[in-house]
Amino acid sequence: MPKTYVLTFIANDRPGLVDLMSETVHAHGGNWLESKMANLAEKFAGIVRVQVPDAKAEAMADALAALADHGFRLAVEEARAKPTPAAGKLLKLELVGQDHPGIVAEVTKCLADHKVSVEEMETYIDDAPFAGGKIFTAIAVMQLPSHLSEEALSNALEEIGGSVMVDITLEDATV
User: Fold this and answer.
1) Which domain range does residue 27 map to?
2) Considering 22, 133, 134, 157, which has the largest number of Cβ atoms within 10 A of its Cβ?
3) Which residues pair with 9 in a beta bridge?
4) Closest by CA position to 68, among listed 26, 7, 2, 6
């Protein structure tokens, strides 16, 4: 039976990093299932899910660990299926406001307090057109717990948005 692993990594950005990892996985009969990667501040970081035949799993993990010789800091974790609780609606959050410290902390505290699971999140800062300064943007896909209504979460986020001076919108993420 094949094993599934989640790999997380960071390295100084340079061409060929993804090739090193993918060749290592492929050389052990592994299948690259999904990944998310980004260049941030001259570092290349990512998360990858791979599947490998059970008989080659340990050798693949050892070969991936050896990528440290190529400047990788890499963690290899076996992914184990576990039952998922009944979940509510899948929502997309979009947040925009003038950048300042604490925005992510306040919003994610609200989400955690309401037991909302962040499935994906991307944030970035751009120059503010016309007004100067910086604009912070966050886009997230979230899974509500079955007991939480969209309206209750929207009300809580609206309160947070007012206190940190950002606009927050929610919409159905299944569209």
Assistant:
1) 3-78
2) 157
3) 46, 74
4) 7
Residues 6+ apart with CB under 8 A from 63: 24, 27, 28
pLDDT in tens, 17-60: 999 999 999 999 999 999 999 999 999 999 999 999 999 999 99
Domain count, the chain: 2
68 with 118, same domain: the answer is no
CATH code of the domain containing 45? 3.30.70.260
The whole-model pTM stands at 0.83
> Sign of dihedral through CA atoms 174, 111, 154, 127?
negative
Contact criterion met (CB below 8 Å) for 158 and 120: no
**92 in the same domain as 168:** yes
Question: What gap in Å lies between CA 149 and CA 89, rounded to an integer?
Answer: 8
**Amino acid type, 63:** A
Only one residue has tokens 């970035």, namely: 124
